[in-house]
Amino acid sequence: MKDDQEHTILAVHVRGLDGMCAGCRAWWARLAPYPCWQVDWATSRQARASVARFLGGVR
Ligand SMILES: [Zn+2]
Question: What domain of life is recorded for the organism (predicted)?
């Protein structure tokens, strides 16, 4: 299992002062409202991973 990517995304994609995603702006010079789709992806991955751990580590 490899969840480094989610942690990296969640660490970088944080809410900026103006409500935009700071990570998207820093990485791609792109304005995206926070939470951006990458944060959605990472949080849903983490939720699935913790459910899997709770159920006994199926994956
Ligand atoms: Zn982002």
Answer: Bacteria
pLDDT at position 40 over 80:
yes
Rounded to the nearest whole angstrom, what is the distance from the C-alpha of residue 51 to the centroid of ligand 1?
Answer: 24
Q: Where are the domains of the chain?
A: 4-52
CA of 56 to the centre of ligand 1 (A): 31
Threshold 0.85, pTM exceeds: no
Instruction: State residue 44's pLDDT score.
Output: 95
3-state helix/strand/coil string of 8-27:
HHHHHCCECCCCEEHHHHHH
Return the exposure string of 5-26: e unless at least 16 CB atoms fall within 10 Å of the residue's CB, then b. ebeebbebbeebeeebbbbbbe
